[in-house]
Structure formats: structure tokens, C-alpha cells
Amino acid sequence: MKKKLLFIILGLVLSNITIGQTLDRLISFCNLKDYTHLYKMIDSLRESRVRAGVEIDREIVDNYYETIFYYEEFFKIKENPNVYDVYPYEIKLLSKFGKIIYCNFICNRNKNNPDTLVYYTDSVEFQKMKIKYNEIYNYSIEISQFFDKSVVYGHNCGIVGTQPEPREKIEEFIRTNDIAKINEWLQSPTVELQVYACEALFRMKENGFSLGKEQMRMIMEIINKNGEIRVCGGCIYSNEKISYACKDFKF
Hints:
Blueprint: H1 2-31, H2 35-44, E1 50-61, E2 64-77, E3 80-96, E4 99-107, E5 115-121, H3 123-137, E6 153-157, H4 165-175, H5 179-187, H6 191-206, H7 213-223, E7 228-234, E8 236-241, H8 242-245
Parallel strand pairs: 6-7
Antiparallel strand pairs: 1-2, 2-3, 3-4, 4-5, 7-8
Helix pairs in contact: 1-2, 4-6, 5-6
């Protein structure tokens, strides 16, 4: 009995050490600005009491990517071994060609006051990203405008089939021919809003509206982006490739 108890305790200790080493490696890759190895590690984690994955990963402009990873650790509570204590982590990144230019690695255990593990911005490289975005979309971006998980592209979502707020707005923009608002969404760093704008302009074009050269140029940039957006339809919420979400927009 004593031996069995010893093995159980040893197993728990070793498991906690392994989890600690995993977190240390994730932090190390972030500090090294090594997006490639960080992505591979997140994608390959199969440890017990750990859950990890890619929440979103998509191109913003000219091979600059926006990425959100999630990583969760589960620890058994001593008072009740059937209950787990959860430590949820989130890694928000901007990167290009495998090099991280912005990193915010936090622990959301206390959602009102998250702990920051790694935080930095490569100001020189982000300035280059801003210049490129302004060249393509005639809009000046800020880091605070990224990582918005509240926006979803779709219609009739949830059990009762309600419309997402952006769907209601874009339908109003179309109904009132509010080209100025649609153009704002076309320029937005939130890719879901850009796809809504592409849909709106396609539908308006089908009804006789003439698109300008700048609009067409931005549309082609958007529908050819790599990566995914958040989508919904009915009870299904998921990610979908940008190219697939735009496949019916025949400009």
C-alpha cells in the first residue's frame, strides 16, 4: 500500500514537472521571437492534463500574420481528486516569416487582472507593417485593433438563429447604400469585417453598383489572404478559410 501511494505521489510530481517544462519552453520560444517552433510545439502537445491549440491564424497584409494560441494546464485539487484546477494561458502574436514582432503571453486565471509572462513589440518591424497596411488599405493600424474575438462572420447563428451584430449592420449598410461605412470595413484590420464588406460590395455590384479601382484592389487583397476567419451558421461556430468564405464572390 505504501509503495502504491509512493508511486502515485511520484507520478503527480513528475507530471507537474513536465507541465512546468512545457510552459518554460513556450515562454522561451516567445522570448526568442521564434514563431515557427512555438507553432510546432503548440500543434504537437499531446500531454495529459494539457490542452493547447491555434485559436486563429491569418494573414493581415503582405505575409504579416495575426495569431492567437491557447494553452491550458489542469491540476487535481488535493481536497477532491475528481476536480481540476485550470490555468488558462493565451498567446497573442503578430509575425512575419517565422519571426515574432509582437507578443503578449498572459495567464487568464484571474480574468480581471491577468498575469503577463511575456510582452514586447518590435517597433521597427511593426512600423513596416503599418506602412504596408496603409499602402494597401489607406488606413493606419494600431496593435490595439487586433485580436478581437467578438466578431464572427455568418448568419442565423445559435439555437434560435439570431443574426450576429455585424450581419445586422452590413444589411443596413446595403439597404441604405452606405458606401462610406462599407469602405471603412473594407479597410478594417479585423478580417471578418473585411469579408462582410466584400460580400456587401459583391451583392451591390450584382444589382448594378459600379466598383471603383481602389475598392477592387482591396477586395482582391482580402479574398486572396491566407488563413481563417471565425464563422457561424446555426449552432455551429468554427473557423473557415478566408478563400472558402469568399468563394461565391465572383468579381
